[in-house]
Amino acid sequence: MKNNISPLSKALLVIAALLLVVSAFVPIWQIDLQAPQYPEGLTLKIYSDKLGGNVEIINGLNHYIGMKTLHADNFIEFTILKYIIFFYAAFALVAALLGKKKVLYTLLIMFILFGIIAMVDFWRWEYNYGHDLDPNAAIIVPGMAYQPPLIGFKQLLNFGAYSVPDIGGWFFIGSGLLMLIASIKEFKFSKS
Amino acid sequence: MKNNFLTIAVGSLLIASALQSCKPSNTSNAVTGNAAQKTYVAPGKYDEVYNFVSGGFSGQMSVYGLPSGRLFRVIPVFSVDPEKGWGYSEETKPMLNTSNGFVPWDDLHHVQLSKTNGDADGRWVFGNANNTPRIARIDLKTFKTVEIIELPNSAGNHSSPFLTENTEYVVAGTRFSVPPDNANGDVPINTYKQNFKGYISFVSVGKEDGKMDIAFQLECPGVNFDLSRAGKGASHGWFFFSCYNTEQANTLLEVNASKNDKDFIMAVNWKKAEEYIKAGKGKKTPAKYIHNTFNESTQTASSEMKNEVTVLNVRDFPDICYMMPCPKSPHGCDVDPTGEYIVGSGKLAALIPVFSFTKMLKAIENKAFDGSFDGVPVIKYEEALYGEVKKPGLGPLHTEFDANGNAYTSFFVSSEVVKWNIKDLKVLDRVPTFYSVGHLCVVEGDSKNPTGKYLIAYNKITKDRYLPTGPELCQSAQLYDISGDKMELLLDFPTIGEPHYAQAILADKIMKNSLKIYKIDDNKNPYVTKGESESKVVRDGNKVHVYMTCIRSHFAPDNIEGIKMGDEVYFHITNLEQDWDVPHGFAVKGAANAELLIMPGETQTLKWVPNKVGIIPIYCTDFCSALHQEMQGYVRVSPSGSNVPLIWSVGTNLPKE
Question: How far apart, in whole angstroms, are the C-alpha atoms of residue B635 and residue B285?
Fold first, then answer.
């Protein structure tokens, strides 16, 4: 009995799994760009398997500063990310089904690790795009790189870039929080 | 004696100064305190209303915002427009074809917005060509002229392009009666009565696609048809045309066509005519006229010659047309929002007759006729008359309506707008115009539901209203606030060409549908280049086709060699941009042609016949980006028979050491 988790924790895990499944189909992250000429703003939407929003327009603008064009095909992430998310959704369901604390803790740790790796990967990705510039670009500002912020706001020449989780990202975070709440609850319960 | 002299001198001075102060007040005190506030649209804010204004002898249609009076766009319709390549690009040239060949100019007098259930629906706006008779349809998603149909048997398409309440038909009535096209026209001019006919065309409009087709024409007595309006509500199914020159004069019309005390408003039962056509009573008659359509998918216009039109001679079908006597050469014949009242405006009259549709029907039923005019029954004046507006002013021209049962009539001669009540025919208010107003327009004021906040007067004379610009002065519009009991002058704004009729519509009905870009994937132009890698130059005899792309900030190719004297070069330029408001322009040094303005996702073609050996620059004319001035290239022209190979490139033809 001590090794088993409560029905409430199970329910939380099922919800976490559902949130994950949904997050695989909606945009996970978004980078909003604003400039005087773009009062309506430009948006780059990152899904689990593709890029959305004003990709072509952003690519067109980035050629001035010699940034590589963005193509979903160039990212291995887009072919595997969805399945990783599904894996975690399945994992959460299995954890709910088995109802073992150890499985729950393993899930939480692995999920946090995945989150960290994903963010590191995203940062690396932004770094490469922001720094690997064509030396023959029309606009070269010495010392200027165009790495968008990992999260938050940054001014890049005439563009203000605002990087935040999109709906899928919030679901993803929410899912992690539910796992965390379940784990804390079980951990406390076992101690008392 | 001396004292007397002084008295007289001082007395005359006093009288003179008193007379001076009696001079009529001018504009400065015609404008009230908060007019500026009412017309101020702050930077970055939108106007409430689109105003589509005929360009008169410019042949174009202009688009203004109200209440600011700011000009947004001049839509090229019947006249070439080198600025936009209209009539110069290969894609648009066919739009100006007529049975007389390519006609580069016309005179656009009237506009009308498409209607659904008697209200402006914001889908299309129509314009008439007054010289070479045509009707144009402009798509309000793109603000582009997409169709022009020519009208046979007509001369001076003036009473057009007025529409029925669901845009079933757009009509055209000839201003000049002439011998029909398939009759022998080589007759003495003074045989008007025998040989000249007045044709009215009913042009059907496709419910979904707006495609125009001449459904039938009515052969009517020879007169001048001036303006027209469809019935609405109760009078849907009828059309009303004002006629002048019922004297059938062929010379010095200012005298000879002003003799009759009354001319006519001709009521046409078009539903009845439709029945006759359906029953096969129409006579298929040979006629040559051209129908031009702009295919929005291929972005290319084409012309089709038509050879036949179906005609009903109204003499043979006496229950289609009826004449209602109307004083003194009527211009406007306007139908109120309920459809019951028809307002005639005799250009030389000092009263406004208002006809009742119900009474007219009764008069027809009772055959209350006063003989006939050239075979068309003439209804007794009093039998169809609802009443007359007494002493409204001099020279009524045109009437529109508000939502509260009031009418507004323009007076050319007395230069004013007069507000009166339709029910009791009492004059309520009058305001001066500066000067000599022609048409006026109330926002959606010809519909079943006028919005009635603004009235715009379109003036013929501006004289001292603006800074002078030599003998040729601008014409102008004046904006009035009609939301209160008293009309209030708010603003003057100059217009392009000569404004005749105009229409205004609430901005919401149009702006939400306005297209931002053409999708490059949907571009079916046969000469499209859907990417730089597909750009190429192809020789076909002496014709050279350049498949060129443009994107900020270069053309591909931008170096072309191997063009020879005697070649005809076709630059097919595709704008690869897919972003809002990034057109590119294209121009060739010395080309006996215009520029191109190519919208994102669009393909346009410029024909160029080189006339000199040498290096010819090409460049982008529309400041597209920070590197716009770098957006240029060269074409090498060699003598005919030269063996310079045809080569093209972008970015690879590096300097030779």
Answer: 52
DSSP string, B163-183: B-TTSSEEEEEBSS-B--TTS
Q: Which two tokens stand for residue B204?
A: 């059907």
Q: How far apart are CA B620 and CA B626, in angstroms?
A: 12
Q: What parts of chain B have a pLDDT lower than 70?
A: 1-30
Token pair 């784990």: residue? A183
CA angle B112, B399, B460 (to 5 degrees): 80
Cα of A29 to nearest chain B Cα, Å? 23
3-state secondary structure of A23: helix
Strands (E) across A47-149 are located at 51-53
Q: Does A64 touch chain B (CB under 8 A)?
A: yes
d(CA B330, CA B351): 11
Task: Please tell me the number of Cα atoms within 13 Å of B119 on its side-chain side.
Answer: 8
Looking at residue B138, its pLDDT comes to 98
**Contact yes or no for B54/B110 (Cβ under 8 A):** yes
Q: Structure pTM?
A: 0.90
Token reading at B427: 């004059």
Q: Which residues on A lie below 8 Å from B553 (Cβ)?
A: 138
Q: Which residue on chain B is closest to A137 by alpha carbon? A: B627
Query: How far is CA B539 from each of CA A92, A174, B34, B544, rounded to the nearest angstrom?
Result: 66, 63, 66, 4
Closest C-alpha to B364, from B413, B322, B406:
B322
| B560: Cβ contacts below 8 Å, ≥ 6 apart | B537, B546, B633, B634, B635, B636, B647, B648
Alpha-carbon dihedral A70, A75, A78, A83, rounded to 10 degrees: -170
Specify the amino acid at residue B173.
G
CA pair distance B15, B5, nearest whole angstrom: 15
- Bin B601: left if φ > 0, else alpha if -120 < ψ < 50, else beta: left
Q: Which of B578, B579, B627 sits opposite A138 (nearest CB)?
A: B627
Per DSSP bridges, beta strands B300-313 and B212-221 are: parallel
State residue B4's pLDDT score: 62
Q: Which of B552, B626, B627 sits opposite A60 (nearest CB)?
A: B552
What pLDDT was estimated at residue B121? 97
Among B338, B348, B199, B181, smallest CA distance to B262 is for B348
Give the whole-angstrom CA distance, residue B321 versus residue B303.
Answer: 34
Residues of chain B neighbouring A56 (CB-CB closer than 8 A): 578-579
Burial of B8 (0-12, 13-18, 19+ CB in 10 A): exposed
Kindly state the helix (H) or strand (E) to which residue B418 belongs, with its residue range.
strand B416-421
> Taking the CB of residue B372, how many other CB atoms lie within 10 A of it?
14
Average pLDDT, chain A: 92
Q: Which of B120, B117, B237, B127 is nearest to B172 (CA)?
A: B127
Cβ within 8 Å of residue B161, ≥6 positions away: B110, B111, B112, B126, B127, B128, B135, B136, B170, B171, B172
B365's enclosing H/E stretch is helix B357-365
In A132-191, the residues whose Cβ lies within 8 Å of chain B are: 138-139
Closest CA to B350 of B395, B320, B317: B395
Q: How far apart are the first and last CA of chain B?
A: 107
Nearest CB to A60 within list B579, B626, B627: B579
The number of C-beta contacts closer than 8 angstroms across A and B is: 19
Q: What is the complex's ipTM, to 2 decimals?
A: 0.77
